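ok so for the tutorial part 2 we go from a plain amino acid sequence to predicted structure tokens. step 1 is just haveing the sequence, like this:
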Amino acid sequence: MAEQELTWQGAVARWDRRLFDMVARRHWPGADRVLPRLGRAANHGVLWGGAALSLAAFGSARARKAAVRGAASLALASATINTVGKWSVRRPRPLLDGVPAVRQLARQPQTTSFPSGHAASAFAFTAGLALESPGWGAVLAPVAASVAFSRVYTGVHYPSDVLAGAALGVAAGLVVDRLARDAKEARVVPGAERRAVGVPALPDGAGLTVVVNTASGTATTAGLDVLRTRLPEAEVIECTGPELPAALESAASRATVLGVCGGDGTVNAAATAALRAGLPLAVFPGGSLNHFAMDLGLAGTEDTCRAVAEGDAVHIGVGRFTPGPDDGRPGYFLNNFSIGAYPELLRHRLRWAPRIGGGPAALLAAWRVLNAQRPVRLRPAGRSRSVWLLFAGNGTYHGTGPTPRRRDNLGEGLLDVRLVHGGGRPGPRLLAAALAGPLTRSPVHAATRLRSLRIDEIPPGTPFAYDGEYAKAPAGLVLDSLPDALTVYRPHP
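step 2 — the prediction. this is what the tokens look like for a chain of 493 residues:
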């Protein structure tokens, strides 16, 4: 068996060298000027990042979505190549005998040869793009093939390196496409939260005051029309983001039931107002992602209207952090709380989104964080640690990694705490943590479930995020879970 393996490897090596020499000997008109420059343009994914930003800035909605898919596929392929591929097969670079000097790169790569990172990035971005927008994929496919071929043409890779890299790139595109489809097809299923008794039933909406954040972007006219038709006596207040806190406080002071229409940040503000006023909350999904509403089992405005009319509601747990950003009073989170890489990403995205749009801002923010972020030194649970990310979820999330997506039960009353240890670069660390099992321990990732967690020695100016909102952390924080703290309307199965 060993002899057969050596024979097979030798045959591949001879085939590789013959093809490599064939390319080196052949004259390709115009290629000496184009291919080396094209390969350099693709260094560190710059060519594909520029393409993604251009599509996000000037393309249609579908083109922007395709650009995000392509960038995600490229990120997955690059992380896999740099953390697994290059370390697993330490193949030397080809000897440059026979490669004309005019083709050779001024600076030769120092990493191992197998597989080709340039080919992987090129085909990952193009595959991710094509699976969402075949037209744009067809436009960039020749460019991707040229970048891959340039690596053999300039003498830095064997043909099999390029073929393996291209295959890994296509596989990354397929994985991202599958994850996106699974997320899109995920069913909204009510969880096992404890049913609330004695909650007001408002058949015509009298006593319900709904605050609508018109800046959320997707609080559509159709959704508000359904609300006004089903609950005609409800009071509806439309406001923008800066007006939201005062509008919620005013609404909570006179309502029997506080309602809110907006994204997760808006819902968080309404939940805080409802908790302080001791009111039940009616959530009308109106944001881009609506994580809380999805996890609760609310598919849309119609579900909430039916629950309010019939008096159907459940008790849910709420995460609390003390002190909060509002005059030292406790703050709350319905989804999650985090310190480290994600708050930094959110800070950059919020800063750039008004100037260049949400899609390009997210790409630039991810690039900035992965290249410039440093671990945070703090003291969780009495032990000093250097961490890339500390994540605390309100209830147990499914899936692997530090920031999984979905919960089955918001009434659990536990914090799902996940920690990515510092050291090295953030990209490989976060990828390794994402591949670790949920609630397991690994050299880079730890996870557990707690009632409370104290975090001390937080460096001044350290940001934290909660339900998509951003603030600066104090020197110390206490996170805890409040079981059955909030009553929320939801139809019963």
